[in-house]
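tool_call: predict_structure(chain=1)
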Amino acid sequence: MVDTVIAVFEHGVFLPESPCDLPEGSRVVLSVRDAARISPPEAEAEDERRRIVEEVVQRMMRNPLPPDTLRFSRSDMYDRD
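tool_result:
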């Protein structure tokens, strides 16, 4: 099943804005996108593109996943029921 659910992130959890037709305890895979902050960078020069990539990598390194984060296997991520 693939569906789009709009949610608000509050106090460390995602709260759906509309009812979600899933059984309680269902495992889901979230692809999170903050529409207010996402816009493609406008960079034509090679050095500017390189700087943007380096900035993204640095931001990712400052926000590592906690060690006890649930890790999905390849089959979990690509389960095609």
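agent: The beta strands are 7-10, 13-16. Proceeding to next step.
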